[in-house]
Amino acid sequence: MRRIALWTAFLALLAGITVTLRPRNSFASFSRSHPFGALAPVAPSGWEVQDTPLGATEFSAGETARTLYFNDFFYKTYTKGEMRVRVYAAYWAPGRLDPSMVASHTPDECWVSAGGTIIVRDDRRVLPSFGKRVFSQAYFRAFQFSQGREEVVFWYSLGGKPNRSMVQGTSPLLAGLRFFGQALSLTRFGFAPREQIFVRISTNRTIDELVTSDLWPELASSLIQIGILEPTS
Questions:
Q1: pLDDT tens digit sequence for 113-172
Q2: Are 196 and 99 a contacting pair, CB within 8 Å?
Q3: Is 202 within 8 Å of 151 (Cβ atoms)?
Q4: What pTM, to 2 d.p., does this model score?
């Protein structure tokens, strides 16, 4: 078991070195004149919205931001009656952070560490289309916490395309090999760094209820600008 862990760590380190040494001249979609953080959904009438910290304290929030090392992000909580929706989205410019590091910070890891238990899992959830746009396949989870149930969908894109490297195998060695191979292939073996986007939407109700709410059009419009929805063929 220790040998497997060492091999996994070695492969992750090797992928990280390759990504770190690649050129840093790729195009970035977001900038100071076109900030990613400004794409947060507008709260419709009847909804309250507030900025949500990344951690329980100012120190932990700062530590999280330093670990994730994103260029820009937003994290908002929308509330209407008993329904609560949290929307977190982060952006990394090309070459900012090793893709395996970005892909490793998912609810599967962080929420389980925080005491959550996955009770429903679907790695290919497709949400209803919006206008002439369709959603990329999402990771869907239903979690049980001591304070209640939470449903979540999340996406990870690299270079403007959905990336499936978040799917974890039962074997740590196989998971490490998959991360290593995908980090190299999706960055053209380290010579073409690409921007990365992670989006997570969670609610204390159900995702099905969310997509029928009056918050959904604003949320979907925001996701179009972020790049999660794609034109229908």
A1: 899 999 999 999 999 988 888 888 899 999 999 999 999 999 998 888 887 666 554 454
A2: yes
A3: yes
A4: 0.80
Residues counted in the chain: 233
The boundaries of the domain holding residue 99 are 2-231
**Where would I find the beta strands (DSSP E) of 68-147?**
72-80, 83-92, 117-125, 133-135, 138-145
Question: Count of CB atoms within 10 A of residue 227's CB?
Answer: 19
How many CA atoms lie within 13 Å of 40's alpha carbon, on the beta-carbon side?
Answer: 19
- How confident is the model at residue 86, as a pLDDT? 98
d(CA 98, CA 96): 7
Question: Domain count of the chain?
Answer: 1
Calpha distance 218→211 (Å, rounded):
11
The whole-angstrom separation of Cα 95 and Cα 214 is 37
